[in-house]
Amino acid sequence: MTAAQIQNNQRSALGPGLQRLLAGLRLDLTYTRASGNRLHCKLDGRDVEVLDMIGGYGATLLGHNHPELIECMQSLLRDGIAVHAQGSVRAASGKLAARLCGMVSERVGGDYVATLLNTGTEAVEAAIKHAYLETTLRYEQLIEKRKKQLKQSLEALHNGQAVLAPDAMAAAERVFGAIDGGTEGLAECLRTHELAQPQLGFIALRGAFHGKTVGSLALTSNELFRAHWDALGPHATFIDLDDPRTLEAVIADATLSIPSLVKTGGVVRFEETTFVAIAGCIVEPIQGEGGIREITSEQMRRLRESADEHGYPLILDEIQCGLGRCGSFLASETSGVRADYYLFSKALGGGLVKISALLIDRARYCEEFGQVHTSTFALDDLSSRIADKTLELLSQNGGALIERCAARGRYLLQRFEKLRQRFPNLIADVRGRGLMCGLELACLDDSPSPLLRVLSDQHMLGFVASAYLLHRHHIRVAPTLSSPHVLRFEPSALIEVSDLDRVVAGLQELLSCLEAGHVEELTSFIALEPMPTAAPARNSFTSGGASSLRRRRSHQRRVGFLAHFPNAADLRNWEPRLAHLGDGECKTFLDRTEGLIEPFMLSESEIVSSAGERIVVDAIGVPFTSEQALRDLRAGTKHCLRLVQRGIAMAEARGCDLVGLGGHTSIVADGGRAIGDSAVSVTTGNGLTVAAALETLLDMAAKRNIQTARASFGVVGAAGNIGAVMASLGARHVQRVVLFGRPGTERFLRAVADGVYADIARRLARAEDVGGIGEIIARSRSGREQWRCGMSDQELGRRLRESLERELKDSAPVAISTQLEDLRECQLIATTTNSPQPIITAQHLRTGPVVISDIAVPSDVAHDVSVLRPNCVVLRGGVVGLPFGQQVRLPGAALPPGHIYGCLAETLVLGLSNSGRRSYGALTAEQVLEVGQLAHKHGFRLVLDRAAAVSGGGVSP
Amino acid sequence: MVPLDQVMLEIRHLLAELCELPAAQISADGVLRGYGMSSTNAVELIAKLERRYEVELELEEVSRVETLRELASYVQTLTVGPGQAS
Q1: What one-character-per-residue DSSP string does A594-649 give?
Q2: pTM given for the model
Q3: B33 contact residues in A (CB cutoff 8 A)
Q4: Which of A668, A719, A836 sits opposite B43 (nearest CB)?
Q5: What is the ipTM of this complex?
Q6: A383-418 pLDDT, tens digit each
Q7: Burial of A687 (0-12, 13-18, 19+ CB in 10 A)
């Protein structure tokens, strides 16, 4: 198989979601050989030997391909053993069961019965089933006993062989309420009292991980794994062992009262028997996925006492921590607590086969369970013999391998402790026992690197650290999934001290990089190899920046603003430590990490308006580039829309009631229409962008001595919403408006012209100062005619247009054109098309003074126009000045100090005005005028000097 | 009624011409905004579609559709017989 074939299989056929996640950080290596603590792979074209500290999540306690196990397996296969002979005497399984039960009994006493299964989660399922069965049987026995007691008591009362105790009726009435009919009435109450089958539940611990099949998943604490399946499986309550009251509360909630009559001698008493509807309490002596957390001996004893008191079984999940990994055969041995059930798997298969075992105290074991819980593969001879051989190896030389785990673990933890002393701000904790160790990285809230702050805040640091150790030091570690800041170390018992020293050295370099904020070193391998084409990852393990939310100050008025990387190269502006990356490397970096990072805080700035109003703006980075946004839209996958929605949710959580959609976040969200229900208002900022563009255009016209009132105003792209608004507003200042569109769009251009005319006619009717075209219309015969009332705007505009065209012929004040050459008559031009290429060239323009407001993205005006037409000024527009020259810290925004894009400015203006209106969807001339007036009121400068005005952004279509 | 596949194929080419993209890059379920469609060039597309199919399209309807497939379905409903697409 070629490397390309392997990658393609992984991407498309085998868990593509996980593979994409691994690919993001280049953890998607293919290991081809393994031996002991070493794995072999190709890395950057070279054969590399990797030190394996993950150890198959505990499965390779004896290392990869242990020679004696390989020899054993080869011998078994050569001998042609009967691997599958279901429904027969399974000698190998019996031998394994006897050995395993014996090894457990040797250590904790008791007598156990084994059920062999295939995987760890299956052992948990079997434990759930058996615990449920034994508890149900116990309850049924209790009910049967109660029925007998009741029958005997009632017969004795009826026959006069016994009398009812004096306090019995009062006690019964406390349970049933008032009872009529004396003893007969009481008897009736008890007969008819319904004893429904209790809802049995399980107790599990917060942070627990017991598997992902339906039953075991219900006992797994991490809500991420359970999210969609919470309604399936048994009921579980997760308790916090640090707070003993939670266990007591669960027991209290699960306690049922069973009322009955009990005859003692010649007296019948009313009694209540209690039954605790708990089927079992399941515990990992050392939690693995939960972040390498050990249950203390005292906590373990308390759980044992509770189980003994209330009759439910204590189930110890030794699947990851047992069989010697933690320095004793049972990790729970040191607590002195004996369990009713033990679960084993992982290391039991010697790293070669899948096998698990459930051991149940014989006194609790239900014989029928062995008949009804079976599995095709569970007793296969091959797995049983390999597991038996594994136990033999672990027992050799007085359990020397187990003692080795203890010694190596002590050494590793000592070295980790020294690292913690050297980096007290970077290591939050080191913990574990034997060769099950965890190193918890601290949060990097104060890192000089913005990327590191985000990675830490979003719980990605463990993954990045793992990738760094793999690529730079050829050491394989992984974070625990439920506690992603914790790096987990579970090498084999054969690990050498020199290997552990190598791990510590790698960690030291990792921590030095973290301390100095050297994110370029920590992530240097990401940009090395372009990402194969694939959808963005959906990283369920990150969370949306908890510390970002902590910084919220709710008493301030606050707006949010969503920004993204316009181009991949803008990554360098945001994270200066990646300044050495070329454009292509920036693209690779962002393509690989696409979907791995959630929206994050860019900055928090306070702005004071000229009216003295204050507002805080939270700039939130939405991690995609314009190219990625378009790619996502074209694929119809809506990953970017999800990120925008998460960004808005983040702003809302920080107390923002208005969010501006910058750049392509607006396009992705369809100008806000695709956001769905949200408590916050959104704005695209188009209104202020248009207001600023028009004011700047008119200001520049005055500076160029263009007499606006006599000028022609050409609007290119006039059939679109922005163009139509531009035309309508421009018509108030100029003598003539020419609406430009492509051939075939005439009817839409005519509709825009109708709108312009209708607006003027309405304003004339209100005797407003109309100016420009309004004056021409007012003087015309058509304008004096009485069709102002009782007509829709559309109808009014159409009639006025047709009349003026008849009256004034080609001199009608609003004209349409599909020929850009007609721009030659225009001194003022606004252009806002979606053309991918510039469409206005020098040959379309007059030689005299011309001012063009180009708010299209990308630009509509050819680059060389200013050179070929020296009298022409091209304004890019879209930039606004903040009051008092204040600044909003927006990393990467290439604008002069004190300047911001119109979309951000509109967000601030609307926030300062507390207008509470949504500004998305089709823009209107009134909105533009209103937001323009508000901007002036708060001291925003819409007309800037030319240097700022010629370089800017545009509108979102 | 013109077959949907045929309408999609033809609109794909019209979109490609309008947005200056290779037709193969335009997928049936991609969001049209991703190819550069907006209220401005929607009218240009409508003009092309009206010429091609001799039908009249509503700007509001065209603005509402998200994808090529949805647009083709809308156009298809306006074409009443093969003659109109010939």
Answers
A1: TTTS--EEEEEEEEE-TTS-EEEEEEEEEEEEHHHHHHHHHHT--HHHHHHHHHHH
A2: 0.85
A3: 633, 667-668, 670, 957
A4: A719
A5: 0.84
A6: 999 999 999 999 999 999 999 999 999 999 999 999
A7: buried
